[in-house]
Structure formats: structure tokens, C-alpha cells
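Annotated sample (chain length 580).
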Amino acid sequence: MAFDGITVAAVTRELKDTLTGARITKIAQPETDELLLTLKTPDGACRLYISASASLPLIYLTDENKPGPLTAPNFCMLLRKHIGNGRITGVSQPGLERIIHLEIEHLDELGDLCRKKLIIEIMGKHSNIIFCDDKDRIIDSIKHVSAQMSSVREVLPGRKYFIPDTMAKLDPLTVTGAEFIQALREKPVPLGKAVYTSFTGISPVAAEEICTLAGMESGMTARELPEDMLSHLFRQFSYYMEQVKLGRFRPTIYYVKNEPKEFCAVPFSHFDQDTQAKEYGSMSQVLKTYYATRNTLTRIRQKSTDLRHVVQTSLERNRKKYDLQSRQLKDTRDRDRYKVYGELINIYGYSLPAGSKELTALNYYTDKEITIPLDPTMTPQENSQKYFAKYNKQKRTFEALSKLIQETADEIRYLESISNALDIAMSEADLVQIKEELIQSGYIRRKSTRKKVKITSRPMHYISSDGYHMYVGKNNLQNDELTFSFASGNDWWFHAKGAPGSHVIVKTGGNELPDRTFEEAGRLAAFYSRNRGSDKVEIDYVEKKHVKKPNGAKPGFVVYYTNYSLVIDSDISGIENVQD
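Output written by the structure step:
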């Protein structure tokens, strides 16, 4: 989701309500492109986090502190000198630009009242934090932009601050119907793109929502539409913008399979049914939650790259081996035919003339005549021995391959279970345990060190709607621990049928489980399996006392011979997750 002008409007409204009149008590610069302001408001202390990072510009209120460097950077020292102990008198947003102005009053060295502006520009790679005087003259900025870097605007001390109009976009908060229609007709592009490229602060996803509200396909062009339809689109556009003008914000994150995909300040209605919406109390909560979760997932995926490479390489090798063994096994399927040939030659071969090339005889297994090819340079007895030798060789090959192919299939299943564990890993501690499992299984060589690996990852903990505790293993080691150390005999065990996935244990406390708890446990087993996202996942469930682990089996492998089954979806959005 782009940090668009509507999101900035919601943040601006929140900052205006919270920070107007607040006093700045501390200014820190944790990173080269970040500021952390500690403020004292009538409701208590809070912090304002501001980032001008090119990859992730942000601004939101937070309770968390972030340590700064021992020696404060020059920009931080300048702010401390001018606005340390200053008071925020206003928070504003010019139009629907991705810009926030913090107006600050402070006393100078002579005790005179002065006014300054801290301007935060949330504009992707062009993001900046600019400090200006009351006449919009730049005092300094967290990033200096010279004429060599930009031909549009210099951001340097002493220069006049202004907002560059490089895109010639209209203000969506003040545009008239005639201007709206004309702007769209001038652009021979899809309707959705025409909306977000014509008006300031509108993101592609917001443009899609406006088209959906108007009942129009965003792929058609404005030139294809009659005047009355464009007028209808403008009315929907105006209704949408009216919510922004009036501050009717409902900060929301949209989740797909428990992973945040989009966020917004004004709710969307055009997402499909697989998307779950969760509203939050403030835009700051949304931004903090969304980006913290996305950053965590990104970081975990990056850190798991080496482990994934090990698993994927071993999987590919074993799959190729399985295909080769399957082809070789297929070649032995006619082995019994050579045994019959040998037997029939022994029975009927005595009457064959020397140099015969074939033998036609009655096959007493099928009561049908068959013709057996013979080597004319060999005696009947030698031909018989040749076929028996061929039969015995293929029989030995079949027996050996049958065992090997089962071992390879088990290896593939095991590696797929580790791959699934990597998919559901949510922390570095989870990766540490998966790596330890790979070391124990011989896929990774342990580095020579005396330091013992500390395992802190724990199974996931949920509570059913009926109050029963449900536990989900994140990897094979946790699956074994849950099933054979943690669970009692009458607890219930769940697992996706025929697919790599987590063991789910429901603690019964000696009670009979309600149907709803069975269904919720089944959903957990479906979600934390390779079949997550499917509408119909078959789940096996059985009392834990019926689950056994074969001798020498790999971690996570179990057997059971009597079980129940259910078919359920993998939606766990309504199940309470307990953070132990």
C-alpha cells in the first residue's frame, strides 16, 4: 500500500488532536534519516517517530524508544538548539500532499518568542525532513539536495522552501465536476490510472475503490464513457473525498492468510472474500503494526534463504532420484514372465530340434499358448537357465528398489515438512530450531564450537471459542515434543491428511470436546499445512494415545491406524492467539 495523501491526512488529524500544545522535551536522531521526538502532552508523554528513509518513509506516534548515537548528528544538534523545549502550535497538511507541517513556538537566546516549521515530506526516495523559519526559509534539512542532484528544487540552508509541482495534478479536495471530467478525458489510459495520475494524493488502490463504488470497470478509458457516467463517477469521487475532509477515518489493515497485505484510512470494499479486515484505534497503530509485521516477515525470509537453499537443493536431488528409481522399478514389472519361460522350457524343451529359435507351449498359469524366443546357439537347458538368471536379477532389483524408493519418498516428505516449517516461521528463534534439526539430520555440518545452541522457540498457543487450549508445532522437533511429551493420552491430535504440516494438540482436561472446538483445531491444522488457503482440507484427528512413533523414524513422523476425518477450510481469523 502506498503511503498516499489520504493516509497522510489521517495521520495529520491524529497528530493535530494529540500534539497541539505539546512541548518537545527530547530530540534524538537514531539513524541518519530518522528523528524521534519525545513530547509532553496533557494526557502524558508520547513519542513521534519520523523517517525520511528512501525505502520506507514513515511518521506515527509510538510509545517505544530507540537509542541514538553517542554523538548527536549536526541536524539533531541544530533542532535541539532551536526547538528543544519548544511547543507545537499547529499541525497541517497542504492540500492532499504527502507533506505534514509541524508549527513550533520557542524562545530564542534573548527570550523572544519565535516560530519555526518542521516539514515532513513522505515522498518515497524524495522523502525529507526540512527545518524552516517563519518566512519559509530553509534553516537546514536531514538530507541536502543540491542543483546537481535535482533540477527541480534545491534543499539547502538559505534557500526558499516550496512544493515542486512536477506532475501538474489537481487538488482532489477542491476540484469541480467540469475540471474532473476534463482531466480524465485528456488521458487515454485506463480509468483507474487516469484518476490516480490526475489528482494529488490518490493511490492506485484508492482509485480502484472509487471506480468500484461507481460500479465501473477501472480498465476502460474515460473517452469511452458518456458525460452522465463521468458525472456519476465524480459524485462518488466527491463522496469519498468528503470523508477525508470531515476526518471520518477508519484505520484498517487487510489480511490475507494472516499476513498484512494492505492498509487504509478510509475502508475499501473491492477486495475479495479471502481478505479479512481488522480496524484499529488510530492510524499510528495501523502503520506501526503493518510495517512491523511486514518488516518481520521480510527479515525472516531473508534470514531463511540459506536454510531454504539447503532444503530445496536436497528436495530436487531426492525428486530426481525418486524419478530414476521409479523408471528402474518399472523395468522389473515383467520379471515373472522370465520365470514362466524358464519353467516351460524345462518342461517342453526336450522335444525341440537343435537350433530352434522359439518354443510354442501351453502356459499352465493362464491355459493359453505362448511363444518363447530362444537363442538357437544354446541348448534348451541353457536357454532355461538364461531366463531364470534374468528373473532372479530383476527380482533382486525389484526388492532393493522397493526399499530404496520408500526411503526416498520418506526423505521427500521429511524435506517438504521442513520447507513448510520455514514457511510458517515467524522469528529468528524459529529458524534457530529448524537449523538445529537440519544439523541433527545431517543436512548441515555443525560448526566446531563449545557454545551450546539455546532453543527459545515455542509452539503456538491458541484458545478455542469454548475455552480449550490448542497448541501448534512450528517444526518437526516441536511436533514430536507436543505429541509425545506434552500431550496426555486423552488429548486430541490433529494433522492435515497426506500433506506436510503441524501437529495440533487440544488439551481436553478430561472433558468431551464441543464440535466447534474440533472444527477450530481442524482449521489450525489446515492453515499450518502445505494446503493453507484451500477451501476444503481433509484433516485426520484421533486421541493422542493412538498416535505412535516408529523406531528410527525422522522427527515429526508418526503412525496411527484408527482415526476420524473432517473436511474444513483454513480460515483461522476468528481463533484467539495467545502470546505466551
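Annotation: The longest helix spans residues 380-424.
Annotation: The longest strand covers residues 99-107.
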